[in-house]
Amino acid sequence: MKRIASIQDFSCIGSCSQTIALPVLSAMGVECAALPTALLSAHTAFDGFVSLDLTPQLPAIMAHWRAMHLRFDAVYTGYLASAEQVGLVGALLDDMDERPALTLIDPVMGDNGALYAGFSDAFPQAMRALCGRADVLTPNVTEACLLTGTAYSPVQDAAQTRRLLERLLELGCRAAVLTGLRVDGDMAVAALQRDGTGTLVRTSYIPEVFHGTGDLFASTCAGALVQGAPLERAVRLAADYVALTLRRTVQAPDRRWYGVNFQETLPELMARWQNIKEELP
Fold first, then answer.
1. Cα angle vertex 221, ends 237, 158, to 5°?
2. Helix (H, G, I), strand (E, B), or coil: what is residue 265?
3. Which of 20, 158, 179, 247 meets the CB 3.0–4.6 Å disulfide criterion with 215?
4. Range with the lowest mean pLDDT among 92-96, 107-111, 188-192?
């Protein structure tokens, strides 16, 4: 069984980050070793949430993992709360007995053209160094612009998308996957690899916003890639699964504040992944 180290925060209430990564990766047949960067009473859409920064505990956890000589097939990072945490993830990669076959970095730090609250303007610079070590990088448009120093535009034509992907590759990653695109009224995900191979996956636009869609995409991608799926298949599976889950979520309006209703769609993900897995060499 493949093992992934998932490094991101844990919200006690609400579907996002570790509470998506753990069940999604498990459903895909991957062991998920969770390294929480922070503990939240509920995700940040809820008023009055309380949060515990776990940065002081991370070195001891990582040291224990090193002492256990754990082998990870992949490292997958999501929300990292500070430049210090970014540096600690880099140290973990440096200290591993064996380099993981896959490093997937989801550089969670902004949306709608702006950094999330709590991040300084210096944070993207710290994240750039980590992104350069990624095999696969999965930013949304805002995050891609912040990482590359590109002026933000909510609409990206084909030429802009290609250039943004190329600038992400210039950071040093092996493949860049750009989420949250709009193409002719559809939602889309675009990917570009260092060999020039490109992929565009379009899904129907759903005019709603829910927490956790990026986490759901990245977790599904990571689960497929670590088990040998080529990037195009992994991206298509993840994009289609997010779209399916959004369609199911909008049918339950009470779910709005709790995030994507992926719990109901996990059986479909498992069936789709099994079909793909049977076709892999």
1. 75
2. coil
3. 20
4. 92-96
